[in-house]
Amino acid sequence: MNWRMSAMALAALVLVTGTAAVQAQQRTITVGDRRIAVGQTKTGRLTDADWAQVWQLTLPAGRTVTIELTSDAFDGFLALRGPGLDRAATDDDTGPGCDARVVRELRTGGAFTVLVTPSPTSSLGSGEYTLAVRDGAAEEIQDDCTWEDRNAPWLRADARRLPAIRVGETATGQLSLQDSSYRGSPYRLYAFSPRANVPVTIDLMAEFDALLRVAGGALRAPLRNDDGGAGCAARIVHTFPSSGPYLIQVTAISNPATGPFTLSVKEGSTPMQNDDECSSPSNTEGEEGQRAPAGPPADVNTLPRIRVGQSVDGRLVSTDSVYDDDTYYQLFAVKPRAGATLTIDLHSDAFDSFLVLRGGDLERIITDDDDGPGCDARIVHTFRTEGPYVILVNTVGRATGAFTLRITEGSTTGEPGGCEP
Q: 231-254: per-residue pLDDT in tens?
């Protein structure tokens, strides 16, 4: 089942039944005696054992309320259920930054319940949060959620021990696989101290699809940008409230990418160029027009081999390699006969399968989601050389579980069965 939908279904189940505990995704939601009223702000804490919590509140008819969930520890998700609501009113990122916010005009009063849990689009998280209920409709926020892991090791780096880049300076370097790694991509860190309340433009240009992150100082959450500069260059324009120091992370949007880069910091607001087209090889599209995860440049000699006519049973687990989109993957190598047409099938009862094929003489990555039966992924391709080629077993949305990867000779035909996760 799609994780976003399962979270909504889970919210509806808990809030409709009011049962003491609901087991889902091998985790338990405990419905305790947490209560909140209009005008109140309460704090709570999610843990690995208590990964979602339910609050109770009483609301009168004819009232518009705003319910807001804020956390520096995880990307929050809210669900409101009660009289007059045919389905749970849910939200992920309508509040400031990654805060969740539900605004609802209530035609029917009575007892309502609010589910607090991590966002279904991110990995399950834990930590402290604040839940507030206010009268009236909150003003709409026009910003983006660029959630980053608040516990990422790079955020704990000591700025005093990092190479410094001053405002007005340019630094050059080279990312390599020997650098520290975050979410599968190598990175370099720099420290800088801007003047308080003066706008600054940070640019990162590279031969790879550049990704910039800035954290520390008085920032409540890390700043992040991918293609705000020209082409695939990254750009962050920000007025910092203090002189920091702040951390700049130089990395790549693909997993991983290496090569030379140029980092520059200057005062002033340089316009963002989000309309520029990024034509980086890491954004290669598959035959079905889907954006393919790039994955690491694999050494096929070290990968598990799957032969034509063979089926391999495996399991994606939380210790597997992770893409920048937070999904897990495993790699396999295949060496077909030149000129052979093969069918590659990925089946799982635990997740919606996603396949990636690359390497050999392929000019672009080939991907598939649901061309097999049901939610199975299937790639049919005629190979011009023996390769070898790399197959990536992946998921649509973050998930783990058992899978079967199978390669057969010939073109397997038939209409896709229709995916109903």
A: 778 899 989 989 999 999 999 876
Q: What DSSP element (H or E) covers 13?
A: helix 3-17
- Eight-state DSSP code of residue 291: B
Question: Considering the domain boundaries, does residue 420 fall inside one?
Answer: no
State the Cα angle at 5 between 38 and 18, rounded to 5°: 50
**For residue 162, what is the DSSP state?**
S
CB crowding 381-400: b at 16 or more within 10 Å, else e: bebeeebbbbbbbbbbbbbb
Q: Is 155 left (phi over 0), alpha (psi -120 to 50) or beta?
A: alpha
57 within domain boundaries: yes
**Confidence at 282, pLDDT banded by 50, 70, 90:** very low
Q: Are residues 294 and 191 both part of a single domain? A: no
Residue 108 belongs to a domain: yes
Q: How many separate domains does the chain show? A: 3
Of the residues 267, 301, 327, the one at which a domain ends: 267
Query: What is the CATH number for 370?
Result: 2.60.120.380
Task: Calculate mean pLDDT across residues 50-75.
Answer: 87
Instruction: Report the C-alpha gap between 239 and 196 in whole angstroms.
Output: 8
pLDDT of 223 > 50? The answer is yes
Asked if 286 and 367 count as a contact pair (C-beta separation under 8 A), the reply is yes
* Range of the structural domain that residue 117 is part of: 3-135
Q: Is residue 34 part of a domain?
A: yes
User: Which of 267, 295, 315 is the C-terminal boundary of a domain?
Assistant: 267
The alpha carbon of 388 is separated from its chain's Cα centroid by a whole number of angstroms, namely 30
Burial class (CB in 10 A: 0-12, 13-18, 19+), 362: middle
